[in-house]
Write a structure and sequence with these properties.
Largest interface: A-B, 70 and 70 residues
Radius of gyration of chain A: 27 Å
Structural class of chain A: mainly alpha
Number of domains of chain A: 2
Oligomer: homodimer
Number of helices of chain A: 14
Strand content of chain A: under 5%
Largest sheet of chain A: none
Shape of chain A: elongated
Amino acid sequence: MKSGLNFLVAAKRCEIAELQQLALTSALVNVTGRLIHGLQRERGLSNLLIGSQGARFADMRLQQIEECRQIEGELRACFDELDTASARVGHGARLFSRIAYVLQGLDALEALRERVAALQWNTRQATDAYVRLVTGLLAVVFEAADSASDPEISRLLVARFNFMQGKEFAGQERAAGSALFASGRADTSEQQRLLHLIESQERCLQVFGEFAHPDVAEVWAASQANTPLAELERMRRVLCTAAHGAPLNVQLSQTWFDCCSRRIDSMKVVEDRLALDLQHTCENKTIAAQAELASYEALRAVPPQKADAMSFFHDATATASPSGFGAGAQGYGLQLERSILELVQEQARRLQTMGEELDTVRSSLNERKTIERAKGLLMAHRQLSEEEAHKTMRQMAMNQNRRLIEVAEAVLAMADVLPARPR
Amino acid sequence: MKSGLNFLVAAKRCEIAELQQLALTSALVNVTGRLIHGLQRERGLSNLLIGSQGARFADMRLQQIEECRQIEGELRACFDELDTASARVGHGARLFSRIAYVLQGLDALEALRERVAALQWNTRQATDAYVRLVTGLLAVVFEAADSASDPEISRLLVARFNFMQGKEFAGQERAAGSALFASGRADTSEQQRLLHLIESQERCLQVFGEFAHPDVAEVWAASQANTPLAELERMRRVLCTAAHGAPLNVQLSQTWFDCCSRRIDSMKVVEDRLALDLQHTCENKTIAAQAELASYEALRAVPPQKADAMSFFHDATATASPSGFGAGAQGYGLQLERSILELVQEQARRLQTMGEELDTVRSSLNERKTIERAKGLLMAHRQLSEEEAHKTMRQMAMNQNRRLIEVAEAVLAMADVLPARPR
């Protein structure tokens, strides 16, 4: 018959299994992050190629495509290694579903490249296609962030996801700016889009700052000091303030691309650091949990004593009182039985506290989901672009002196009374 | 190399595994519910025995103990059958930890019975001991409610948990009232406790009403019509309004016990109905998921076509447009490839929607946790009883015209500035 000790051990084993699965998922996320980084660069170069009517950047782009193909191969190998045969409970369904989506996108990647090479698509179409694929890859990262049940690890994952999402906005900014400079003409709607991307990226980096370890935040601050921020801001100003149709210096497209790339490459360094921290935290927690497991299992060798079973019915504070010091041979039994109860209570309290902390961390992920849902609702029902929907909500928040999340909740609460989407 | 279809299938398998695990956990909860029911009765009879100084109810109590021992055996067998060897990710750690705690309590049960038989404890001490064990058992039920990732099942589990918790408050009311009548004297603090138990029980039943299927709510309404509610309310009035120290009719202890028992037994019927509904819902969902899985796997037999991979980059609305109807032999391939993408998108959307609905359902569980934490904080820092802490928070809510959950959140936000717990 299984005892409380058996289940104490089983609970600890579950914690360890979860940490190990997290380490595996995390390794998958690392490769995903590298592919995102490569595709971001490929997107930027594709835009430069299209913007220059195929006159420039062809070689650089082909080189980048080769690199991406290699990482894609690695990622597919990671997917192949995933244990899809033994169905996982927990977040398995959502993670696998995201991967299924990503694989559909990867299958279409070569066809996309052909369209770009043949200049069949304009920069906006090409950008949108790459954005869709990268969004799918980021959704894999998001599921990983959502699956941790240890709040400390969850914090790291939230910081990492937001940093990667912020980096993607920076990548979209690079692509949009490259295309704009390369086209040689300012365009109001593209300028609006750039402003939206800059703002979105700042919002993500702010969440990253809230959740990251202070030393990683320092690495990020230090790396920013080494990037040509002033130059970037100057070009941002030129791009965003030129009157619609005014000429832009085509030569600046390369300068803009290089400047953005230096910043984005420095972001990749921070991302790698976040990945490393996560790996170490998983490892350390696994080691600690395994040590605890060993200490529990050592108790199994001792014959069970029920002398002091009644301590179950006393207060936790009472059991910690000096009355716990039994005398002589009987005393050992008392101590042992009490200590198993105490271990059980301690484990329950710890899991409880972890659950509460996790709810807090996850609420920030949920806020993001809520804002995205509200935005999607506005886009569908008011026929707005993403930028317009975001701007509308931000305006409502400012007018009503409320937080963006509160406005989003209000928008969703209105969902039932909004008219059906016109066909 | 694994395809999108492989992961579509894997995600569906995970969903099925989750449903099957839920069905197993649910069966465990059924036996837990029966043991709780038995222990509630044993608690009431123990109080009657102590209240009558051992003069009455001894046989009935022994009979009840025998029944409880049998169900305890069944529950332990269920625990033994749980797969603790292969560590489960998800809510495994918390469930096992709760079970470890319950087993410590069950190990102490015989010792508790001896104290009661020897009249070494007063009714309050005996009640508290049984309450502690039942609370541990309810925590197992709570973890089951918290572990579902299907919102419809989660709703059923939330309804069930709240109903069981409400029934436990009804059981505590029976025990407290039995003891009070049997003692023959009104007592202010016990009267306060009774009022608190009545209120807590009504709150739980309200949540049950919000989450239960309308037809189960009807079963509950119908069963209430058959219980002696008027008689119960009359005795409640007698119990709660008598002046401190005033005599109570000792003979009413049996009447009170029987009247409460009829109500509680009718609650068990509703609880069983909830369990049955849950089982059917799990079964139906499993069948539906398995049919979907079979339809996915049938697609595997068809050779993959990549002709229309590019549809990944078109809008979901665009792919649903008539352009999807390809011509001739090529058409089949187009349709097939598109349909896998559509299946993948549909699955992602469904999991997304389920996740959102689940967040909503779980927020009601989180509210409960928040209120309990705030109560615990007040108890620790202001040296209040549970009833006093609850009353304080309710008073604050009324004074400030806010919901109880808002007051609880405010109390927790104050946690850092409250003085450390005095030793």
